Automatic annotation (TrEMBL):
Pfam families: Exo_endo_phos (PF03372). GO terms for molecular function: catalytic activity. This is Endonuclease/exonuclease/phosphatase domain-containing protein. Residues 62-94 are annotated as: Disordered. Residues 112-317 form the Endonuclease/exonuclease/phosphatase domain. Gene3D superfamilies: Endonuclease/exonuclease/phosphatase (3.60.10.10). Residues 73-92 have a biased composition (Basic residues). Signal peptide: none annotated. Residues 62-72 have a biased composition (Low complexity). It comes from Merluccius polli (Benguela hake).
Length: 325
């Protein structure tokens, strides 16, 4: 077989002067049969290079050079460039967490603290440990037990403006107890003013008119009413306290017919819907033992969703947190 191959090679070399490499024709099957035979041996380097010059060996496929430009690829957009992240949750709670200072209606925390002066450390700890509480727009505290001897600096909280309505001495009022206090977050509203303060043996309340920068067009103002009605066993006293509160709220609603009214406080079994049936109550769980005493009324049905928080210090009332729903 080797002699046969050498003979074929000598014949091809003799014809190389008469035929070019492109004109030479050979049988591929014959070459494959030679390679599969047992007498086949590999060509030496000289013979292989000579055959390559004749074009009898197949050249390897050419690799793409560096000068060849690759197909244009679509540039991937960065995650920070997307308006909404993939898999991001929607809804009012997600929007409120993303922009806590721009809600349509303010988030509220309501608590009966029973002496605000000795609960300041607990409130600061709660705000530092809970981000939702820290971003809350309005904090309403009842039974503050504050008086003229306690300055505003003693009950001041960071990034919040304090509005007090202490229990006045005289006129049948007790020396200790009662009083309401409202904190408004500066990032939510800086245009706020107290339009009414009322203190009597039957009811203590304060009305604050707020004009936040981000306010829906449906509302001209937000009316915050913090109220405290002392516990009494007489139904006539409760009705008289509700009538005092009704007169003050009706006066503000007449002055601001498109205002959003929020009435929050400790009512002690007094039902505000008996005098203001168009208001809606949002707290649906007990706040002191088995009784629901701390209530929040608004002029919009389903405006809030209430959830309980732990007691502040040694207070026997649960803290109520209301998020816009």
């Amino acid at each position: 077989m080797q002699l046969y191959f050498n003979k074929c090679l000598s014949e091809s070399l003799s014809c190389s002067s008469r035929l070019s490499a492109s004109d030479y024709k050979y049988s591929q099957q014959a070459l494959l049969d030679i390679r599969k035979s047992k007498d086949y041996c590999a060509l030496d380097t000289t013979t292989e290079s000579f055959i390559k010059e004749l074009g009898l060996l197949r050249q390897p496929a050419a690799t793409p050079t560096a000068t060849m430009t690759a197909a244009p690829t679509k540039r991937r957009r960065k995650r920070c460039a997307r308006k909404q992240k993939r898999g991001k949750r929607g809804g009012i709670r997600a929007r409120l967490a993303a922009s806590p200072s721009r809600p349509a209606i303010p988030s509220i925390i309501l608590a009966n603290v029973r002496s605000l002066d000795n609960k300041m450390d607990h409130i600061r700890l709660l705000r530092s440990a809970n981000r939702t509480v820290s971003n809350c727009c309005v904090l309403v505290f009842t039974e503050t037990w504050l008086n003229d001897n306690i300055p505003d600096s003693a009950v001041q909280l960071e990034q919040l403006t304090c509005y007090r309505a202490d229990r006045a001495h005289g006129n049948g009022c007790k020396q200790r107890g009662g009083g309401v206090c409202v904190y408004i977050r500066d990032a939510w509203c800086q245009d706020a003013m107290v339009v009414c303060r009322h203190c009597s043996p039957l009811a203590k309340f304060m009305i604050i008119k707020c004009r936040p920068f981000y306010l829906p067009r449906e509302f001209t103002a937000v009316l915050l009413i913090a109220a405290y009605i002392p516990p009494t066993s007489s139904s006539s006293d409760r009705n008289a306290a509700l009538n005092e509160l009704y007169q003050a709220i009706s006066e503000q609603q007449t002055a601001h017919p498109d205002g959003f009214a929020i009435v929050a406080g400790d009512f002690n079994h007094a039902n505000l819907k008996t005098v203001l049936p168009k208001l809606y109550q949002h707290v649906n769980f007990p706040t002191r033992e088995k009784n629901t005493l701390d209530l929040v009324y608004t002029s919009l049905k389903g405006a809030y969703k209430a959830s309980p928080l732990p007691h502040i210090g040694l207070s026997d009332h649960l803290t109520v947190m209301l998020m816009p729903a």
